[in-house]
Fold these 4 entries.
Entry 1:
Amino acid sequence: MNELRKDYLLDRWVIIAKDRGQRPDEFAKKHVDEKRADSVCFFCPGSELSTPPEIARVEEGGRWVIRVFPNKFSATSCEYKDYGRGMFLRKSAYGKHEVIVETPDHVKRLGDLTDSHIKKVLDIYINRISENKKDPRIKYVLLFKNEGDEAGTSLVHSHSQLISLGIVPPAIMEEVRAAGRYKKDSGRCAYCDIWKKESCGERRIWEDKQVAAFAPYASRFPFEAWVMPKRHVTTPEDMDEKEKRSFAKALMKLIRRLDSSLNYPPYNFYFHISPRGGDLHFHAVICPRIARWAGFELGSGIIINTMPPEVAAEHYRSGL
Amino acid sequence: MNELRKDYLLDRWVIIAKDRGQRPDEFAKKHVDEKRADSVCFFCPGSELSTPPEIARVEEGGRWVIRVFPNKFSATSCEYKDYGRGMFLRKSAYGKHEVIVETPDHVKRLGDLTDSHIKKVLDIYINRISENKKDPRIKYVLLFKNEGDEAGTSLVHSHSQLISLGIVPPAIMEEVRAAGRYKKDSGRCAYCDIWKKESCGERRIWEDKQVAAFAPYASRFPFEAWVMPKRHVTTPEDMDEKEKRSFAKALMKLIRRLDSSLNYPPYNFYFHISPRGGDLHFHAVICPRIARWAGFELGSGIIINTMPPEVAAEHYRSGL
């Protein structure tokens, strides 16, 4: 039976269209987009002078292995301005838009990198989040990755991005408000409770002492997965070294499982951290982009997902 | 300067990334997906027995020209059930999922049909909305169209769809609440006022005595356009014949302009009608699917749009 499910906390509904009964392997990408050796890739070693001035780098043996610089086609603005009124509110999109090139190797995907390299990538994510927060006019920092055409990548060389903004985005405010209401009613963190409830159920994917991964009850994407530290931390900077290693490990386990079982599907992931001074439980969300949102999704706000999270979790578990 | 803009009413933000400065023709689809004469198309004349039992048809000269039947891969359920609790709310996805085949001609797009045919298509949309509303358990009826791969079409033969549901979707509730607040403060309909403000400005696209079309201030999609009757009607059934003809004409003017100037881009449109007993001003939204939502959009809820609505409106106007 096709089922309407509500998110744990948010007023966000999905239709889990079980009746279509697709098997997990029917979601596999039909072909792999080969990561071509483009004639010119500005993210490759040798093109350093073609990017905007470098912000940070990680070196090994005298050569960079991770590199950060401003996005040449920035979505943000360096001006800080607030204007417009009534029905026509606007502000300058004040903030920073950074690119984090995760490897010098043009053809490697994130999941192909070694665990120790991935840990360095996570450290750089955390460093950039932390650095961007220092500007008091910045209200939020969003770290995200686009992998594959359908996930919005324009350049194939593996990279993540960071956008910092002068407002707290609506998607974050919704979570902050909903978790706030939950805390007021119960005295507890909603996300800590979500894991308590999911840890013994059919949507659990993986855990160790530090970190939990599961397919959320009202998954919007086929094979959507959430990864979060078990301890109540509001931002990844607050994880200790052991937690960071576990977090990187969990994220990579899921991505490698997607890559190997669904033939390198396109995906996004993003970090939801707490706004400054808030209490939101830090969590990462992996969104495989295998299905398209169409007129129904745009017009209703309800997402049709033909892959029940219980089946998705079983698919992850069976290959970890 | 890249700019954050808030929707007229909703807590919905976009970044209008003007700095990328793309010209309208840079958004043109690179190639046209030819509407192939697939070996078997279940929407073509001759395949009537392969679809679920017909719900309605329009005939001309003894042959159908428009045909309605249930979606074989329904997202809804005929069961009516409410269960789950706490963090795990769910209901059966009670409702109907219908397909409206708009022409017997396999290769024609909606914009290729004659004005008198389009008027009949609109009449059938309205008839199906009205019939679905008769079930008191149905709380909302969403009419939408997916044209082109990137807009989520699985079958190329021109068709629209209708999904009726036992809940009012969040996207509608948001508009109802925001318009309700506006009415309480001002005594006026927000959408009537939006047109009043847009009618003399640079985002105006087209109007006649009955109907208005414009590019909304906080457009989420390149070339997004809204079409609505000027008179305050809450549902398309309440339009008179003249209004219906104008509405069909406006919708087609925009779609034909997209088709001819951007090389048949993929698009969705949907109708936002008022829930039963409500007062929401009926409007249709056209969403060209030329850009992809990536990790930033999913993680923040803020949409980056590189085509300012002022430029989009000028592009529409210059070809009407």
Entry 2:
Amino acid sequence: MQLLEERILRDGKVRAGGILKVDGFLNHQMDVGLFAELAKAWHAAFRDDDVNKILTIEASGIGLACIAAQEFGCPVLFAKKTKTKNIDGSVYTTRVMSYTHGNVYDVIVAKEYLRPTDRVLLIDDFLANGAALEGLCDLVRQAGATLVGAGIAVEKAFQPGGARLRAQGLRIESLARIAAMSEDSLTFVR
Amino acid sequence: MQLLEERILRDGKVRAGGILKVDGFLNHQMDVGLFAELAKAWHAAFRDDDVNKILTIEASGIGLACIAAQEFGCPVLFAKKTKTKNIDGSVYTTRVMSYTHGNVYDVIVAKEYLRPTDRVLLIDDFLANGAALEGLCDLVRQAGATLVGAGIAVEKAFQPGGARLRAQGLRIESLARIAAMSEDSLTFVR
């Protein structure tokens, strides 16, 4: 998507260690006008899939998910990161490895809000190693809901998450796919 | 606001320990159609205040803040909870006591996104003891920005946060103000 690619080139900064800093418009300060355009692109891709729920993960997916949900006319559910063991059986739980922070955390959703009748679109800001997205897929599977696909803002296509999840059959619509990046240059997949 | 009060009465549940569970529409599953109505109400209240930035705190404020930002035509900035000491001076930091979780955490915003020229509206889902909102006020103060006020979805008016912050001069527009609640009944401030 040209608009997002241009914005990344203009305002993104590549930091040491393969970090793409886009916190001026995507995941700290958030440009909701841009988000509305991303939402339209995801809606164009999934408009015929009867999406009735958007699932994301806290915190930086929530804004994108809410604006996207307006396009689809459905609610958002966000998976919560937790260190609390929930023993009452009211939640689905999955474990996610964070490569960025070098730790493992549990994410949960309340069972009552993810049902077998749901047709779920996943939304997140980044796809790199795919751990968070894989965790969301697992929650949908546990619920017996239908996984329609995933809408991603920025995919680091040089990292393995996208290829692995597509090989598993997940439909992924990434609006900017980075082929390679360094502190001097950044190129997109064409 | 009648729409929100009715929704709380219909779908909210009061739990032991003064917990109001509204996670079916406000802070786990999120009804973005309802959010749009809340956003209109906040915009009606603050439309003449030249708001050019909305500040919230992760995670459950983000969805409300993004939908509200569409009304105001401005970006959102969300304060991040962190355990990492940031020593490079690029962030404003404040300390927040969580009464819900019984701990203290630091919240940060990048200095580059909160400027003295900003006119900031705070948005959050809940106001009870006021610790989170007070932390956001402190961040605005550190930045030398103008604090326009706060838009809150649900205020527990029987807890001290709202009264204390109003006494300090903060303009707070809470769309549902709970006067008292128990597992059997819930009443709003009239």
Entry 3:
Amino acid sequence: MSSKWFTYDLIAEDPATHARAGVLHTPHGDVPTPIFMPVGTKATVKGLLPEQLKGLGAKIILANAYHLSQRPGADLVAELGGLHDFMRWDGPILTDSGGFQVFSHGDFVRLDEGGVTFRTVDYDGSYVHWTPEDNMAIAQSLGADIVMQLDQCTPYPAERAFVERAVELSSLWAERCARAHTREDQALFGIVQGGMHLDLRLRSLEHLESCGDFPGYGIGGYSVGEDHAIMFETLAPLASEHMPRHKPRYLMGVGNPTTLVHGVACGIDMFDCVLPTRTARMGCAFSSAGRLNLRHARFAHDRSVLEEGCGCPACRGGFTRSYLHHLVKQREMLGGILLSLHNLHFLLELMRQARTAVIEGRYADFVRRWDELPGSADW
Amino acid sequence: MSSKWFTYDLIAEDPATHARAGVLHTPHGDVPTPIFMPVGTKATVKGLLPEQLKGLGAKIILANAYHLSQRPGADLVAELGGLHDFMRWDGPILTDSGGFQVFSHGDFVRLDEGGVTFRTVDYDGSYVHWTPEDNMAIAQSLGADIVMQLDQCTPYPAERAFVERAVELSSLWAERCARAHTREDQALFGIVQGGMHLDLRLRSLEHLESCGDFPGYGIGGYSVGEDHAIMFETLAPLASEHMPRHKPRYLMGVGNPTTLVHGVACGIDMFDCVLPTRTARMGCAFSSAGRLNLRHARFAHDRSVLEEGCGCPACRGGFTRSYLHHLVKQREMLGGILLSLHNLHFLLELMRQARTAVIEGRYADFVRRWDELPGSADW
């Protein structure tokens, strides 16, 4: 599975934390880590043009293989030249397998020997049967730079026996995905599952390491409803002591700024989450003072920008909280757009500053300063 | 009312039609005419940043005094530094009085000696009483470069007696608006009403000319449901033979590309309409082949851009009809955004080319070529 296309260079390791800075090389460009990846589920980061994402300094974006397999279909995307051409993003792309979406279908999911059957209740309601091989065929048709194995994501709370079976299934599927995956210009990442059980997490990781030379690892099954502290009880030892040093570590579906800052301290390299864009569309802005709900009447006459000194198009452009309040209250598209630009910039910039702090060997201080911010607990 | 801030220079008159090219000078910049003005009803052209409008070459945009008086309120906009500061558009702005909106409230409208009472059914349902003086106070608080008198817009069809009374009321209100309007850095345009009756139109115009030195004239009450041909029966003689030569003529709420091309031939200088952005949000694109409904399945595999050779961000950016079909079908914001950029570019570019044709004295040929396009009747 190792490929000349995908190498990960470790640039710096922080002396007082487990934070690292690196560069992940891909066929569509280099990805400096740690990094936040904006989510473009259906081949579009909602409301933003690719050039606006470039302007924010986004280096890699996500799309979702499940959603794209439903509409417009992986074959159509392949016919149109692959995902990069289709959505006009010429930088690196990562596609999630859709495992998370499949298992969020609840009662409509049935496992069998070969794979999983689920009902596409969010599309036309038809039944779909996926084997890991089917999933890899979709991933290869879409043509992202990085693709994730099909896995079973467990909810929280969950019975240990249930989580254990999910780890076993995910391990089996990792092997089958690895065998089915043949595109050399595409990296396949394995996914560590195991819920909030460290021993199961380690068993999952061990199996992935034994079954092949994955160029990177996802860590799934966190941020599924548990407290921040509960996640770190197992994530911290897993990432800081057990994950291979020379491969990128991707904490899937996370998350909020404080979790990113602490995740980097554990040695996480990559993050993604819909939070910045979804909360933006609901009228909320990230700030060092915490989350600002622009719907609130207290912003009606507020002539300051979202965050003084912020370099995002909304703040640099001088759009006031008063104007944003008006847009959000009137359900104007521009409200969600400006807040999405701001929130994505917030996380991208946070990771750029984190990276610099790691390179300069002062990441412990960076975390301390973050935790002292009035808004750091407000996530 | 005449002001050093607002002068209109006539640059060229076409030899074979009544088309003209000019420049309208305003405190926030020059407006080359003929021109299409994108509509930003609630202080935002839906889905687009001001810098994107600049990128399209928009020179002046609209907002609506009625809507802004409701939310966020004219006083609040004034407190925030006026409309330009509020919405971060530093070019010229024109605000419509809201007369059209008031009289579209139907059964909820009552006229009296002093003004009009209507129920804001599209907001909190409260009753509002407006005099022409109230309306001018709102216009002056908002602070656009050009504001329109309060008028009574008549529907089509309408009884002649009803239209006649509306002309009389609009004339009376024009005088009262002119007396109440004091901002020298803001131009007040009178509005010619009169429905589809040329004699009433001329009576309306005559009264406006007699009651003051308006720096420009709106022509209202067209595009209210009548056929294109019926409008031109009265619009053509009105604009080409009777409107004063050295003042800009603004055909309000119009419209589609073919009407713009023919309107310019009658001597119209300014147009506005929600059509390009509203149809965009419904999934439709302007093209020389007519209107393209991107929801249609025939675009699913279409790898061409909306219009070959088009310089808009959607076409220049290489976004295919296939991708746009996907976005529109999935109700992704980016679909409406890309189509809005394309449709606005289409009308802005059409007027730029029309202006060049007028200056080069070949506008009759320009109209003929337009009418020969396969899509010219498709509006």
Entry 4:
Amino acid sequence: MDQMTEPGEGTPRRRRGRRPVRSQDAGSPQVPFRQLRRHFEPTAVVSDDELEAIHRASLAVLSTVGIDVLAPEARALFAGAGASIDGDRVRLDPEMVTEVISTAPSEFTLHAPNPNKNVRIGGDNVVFGAVASAPFVSDSAEGRRNGNREDFRNLVKLSQHFNAIHMHGGYPVEPADLHPSVRHLHATHDILTLSDKAVNAYSLGRQRNRDCLEMVRIARQVTNEQLDDEPSIHTVINSSSPLRLDVPMSLGILEYSRRGQVIIMTPFTLAGAMAPVTIAGAVTQQNAEALAGVALTQLVRPGAPVVYGGFTSNVDMKSGSPAFGTPEFIKAAMLGGQLARRYGLPYRSSNVNASNAIDAQAGYESSFSLWGALMGGANIVFHGAGWLEGGLRASYEKLVLDADLLSMMQTFLEPLGVEVEDLALDAIGEVGPGGHFFGTQHTQDRYRNAFYQPMVSDWRNFESWQEAGSPSAHDKLPGLVREALDSYVPPQLPENVAAELADFVDRRVGEGGVATDF
Amino acid sequence: MDQMTEPGEGTPRRRRGRRPVRSQDAGSPQVPFRQLRRHFEPTAVVSDDELEAIHRASLAVLSTVGIDVLAPEARALFAGAGASIDGDRVRLDPEMVTEVISTAPSEFTLHAPNPNKNVRIGGDNVVFGAVASAPFVSDSAEGRRNGNREDFRNLVKLSQHFNAIHMHGGYPVEPADLHPSVRHLHATHDILTLSDKAVNAYSLGRQRNRDCLEMVRIARQVTNEQLDDEPSIHTVINSSSPLRLDVPMSLGILEYSRRGQVIIMTPFTLAGAMAPVTIAGAVTQQNAEALAGVALTQLVRPGAPVVYGGFTSNVDMKSGSPAFGTPEFIKAAMLGGQLARRYGLPYRSSNVNASNAIDAQAGYESSFSLWGALMGGANIVFHGAGWLEGGLRASYEKLVLDADLLSMMQTFLEPLGVEVEDLALDAIGEVGPGGHFFGTQHTQDRYRNAFYQPMVSDWRNFESWQEAGSPSAHDKLPGLVREALDSYVPPQLPENVAAELADFVDRRVGEGGVATDF
């Protein structure tokens, strides 16, 4: 059942040595790196009839309003499948959409550089990714600042260190001090040398896409043919809501789906701003945009892996700011899950909040969105650790706090043992009315690993806590960040792989990377 | 469907004027006072077979180990039903237990002094109660102190003020400056004059129980016969785990069930301390204790309303302190719900945390326990607002924060509208690719009430937030507490009722209340 402890089916042995799965690395005790499974039914927030109404409305949007697809090659694929084209506008027949998307797989393996860290996507599998794409970064020592490579590298290390984080969701923070012409080369090199978990690439034009594919191919030491058969990279495709697929995003689908890589098709449909003010309306639009993107992946290559991404939230109607972890966000997250399951697609949601501080708000908004994602049947939870300020900021401390929340979720997802010994009838009889269980053999045999040991929660009594200076959770986090960075262990990258990667980056940087106009 | 806006079935008109349901009282906008319904399936954390294993193990505990029942009258009732009695020890035949508990109702109405605030308990109904029984109290102005009547009264006012709080769960804080001989008289008088929501009484011996029943009868202006037919008071019965029902608790069941009032049978089974270290074992013991108590209610009066209470958590094995909001707590909460539904009983869980501060820990532990309760099918969530420090402390500020969380939950529980206008096809067509929805008629018609407006969450952008002094959620709370207390509106208690209540309290206080030995 735990496919992570065994080589994936059809995965040939690699030159790289496989690291054993350990229940804890250096530093604080951790949950083990483990593929998680949801062993209960996800929550349905609408009836089957209501779900069909949203499905039909989305198809009506695609056939009557249509969607602007800015890349001519993508429009040509739609045209070839019978879509009506009018300038950039593509209108899709409902039956065509339904038929085309039916070839998308409901479950697949995303291969990591370290095969022990492959992740299974879809079905009842659950995986967590770290924060991605924040322009700002902060820690308590130096405050909030622009994203840069040093922080980027540190956050990649933290994402590698914490076992509850299964994969990268993107650049945890934008390394803005790297010039855009070569940023993807250095950043991807950093990720592949500092970490061995499954990776993302941004869809930023053909050349960058090809560079990233080649670097992942080198890291995995596979042929191009094998890479094309084994999803090894994922890219998040955001439509420009409402109803537009721009050139880099269209090209991303063309390039990555052609190579059998994973598209995570995620409209960002903010109810009241770029989508209707009603949740049903915003999700109708989300669904139309998602289905168009999913259809394109299957027109490129039937069977190409694709994930249905939901990212509908609401604006604060006072300020126009996006809000996260709201009741509306959760309803939309659960509704998105129902739609993804209707289409037999893996589902992606997020752990998000709009707090400026690591305070109670950050705690409850993150928890609410995390529970919404999990109960809504998300297979991938992105921005799982480190997201603050509505995604504008990656926070070292929040990453550690969230790693604790994800570990709690992992523990919650572990099946509750109901074997004869778990029922503890003998211990109950032995203790009897009025006794206690501290000293029983049943307790002694199990207490060390019986309960989740949190990193952050302070369970001391008030007096001890007060004597210690009344620390809040926030006060404890900087020490935990340092401890995690200190105990970070780099992955064992064979020398030949490291050299080949470095050579590639040197060569491409020497060529000037990708032409930019600045 | 919203039974709160109509007089309850079989509820005769009262002399008291019915206050209209308003979407907001004075002060910040609020959700309306409304009976909530869970419109999705609760989460099952074990299979049906595993559930049966726990059920059978619990019955085995009751038949082999048995339970100590310290009140002779209670033992006599068990004996009359065929139980084997050995000193205090009562052993119950499995078939007998199953048969006896079958008369308990799965759903009933708890009558409040104001019939508009009656609450429906069981089925898919959900109601929230405020913090109860804390020995300490705190606010940010004066810090942590012993419970006292002034704080007690203020917390009752806050519980009355916030519409998301449906009922009282007990004394929010112990008014320790009132002598125990008369405390129940003054405290219950305070609750009945400062609030019109459904009330609790503590089970602290015959005389106190009778005094509380009489005061609630006066407040509702009903006859004793009508009171006996209309549950109007609830009392939480905690077994002394493991496997003991002490005299005041046994008498509470005898007194209140005889009068048709609501027993909330809640073992406090702390895994690793007063219960086995495994969650399955701790819940097996919880279930044994709960079933014994439920059986006693039905032996007293078949059909008496009773709620299955789950309160299994784990100790911190380092310090021995109880932990709350943990993965183990959530699994136990969901498992308790499965057992309650198996027996056709309403289910009670809690919103709890072990934090000493209103920080991220308080935010995530509370959110985790609240989600565990809700997804686990809890019909009553106690300690819903204000609980801190593992229940040792009632916090003004935490009460306001939690009122916000409960309001978010209420909004989440409101059905997602999927009518034709909600799907917004016209608006999507009108805006088209690349536009925005701010100005559309569809948005303009709905934006004021489209989304939940939080009290606490700060959604300003970083710059505005920093200019305002970088306030955390905690910093905002004292102002919200003052605002809520300032806008508190006392219930409209008719003069004759107020006089009758005052006379009763004066007389009973004059008689010395209840004899104590100190």
